[in-house]
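Field: sequence (string)
Field: structure_tokens (string)

Example rows 1 and 2, in order.
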Amino acid sequence: MKCAVNVTLRAERDLARLYREIGAANSETARELYRGLKKQILSLDKLPFHWPVTPENRNLRHLLYGHRRKTYRVIYRVVGTRVDVLHVRHGARKRFG
């Protein structure tokens, strides 16, 4: 099943903040991390049900990207053939709720 990936305004703001916080404009390593995260988000079009349901809400799913202290959590929902990306946050932040 091929889905359309819709990155919500909130998630776009989260990504813009992340870009600034990691200094992606000035660091190739940070830019690579950011590009990899965006690529992973866009890959939700192929296997949206691959990632687990969130513990906070069974209607939401989340993918984790990165390693250890540089792990980011993408919270999304699948609605028919559309994937709505709701939030992008650092993995250490309080749970979504």
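Row 2 begins here:
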Amino acid sequence: MKLVYFAWVRERIGKAEEEIAPPASVATVTELVGWLAKRGEEYAHAFENPKVIRAAIDKSHVRPDTAITGAREIAFFPPMTGG
């Protein structure tokens, strides 16, 4: 699956996107964030406060407990404000 990072999440990780294949035990957005946080210092820094991270699966905003099975793209971004 493709991961896309926006704003300070992208800046902390150091890349805008990547292709990954998480283990089968990673089934939800929350579990994916936890797995990513263990991939290195830059990921740990980006996901140090998972409660503020927002996610979208295939361009639709989702809750942290949403299953990632079958997702083609998952985007991570900080909270947004309107303008």
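free_text_note (row 2): The two ends are 32 Å apart (CA to CA).
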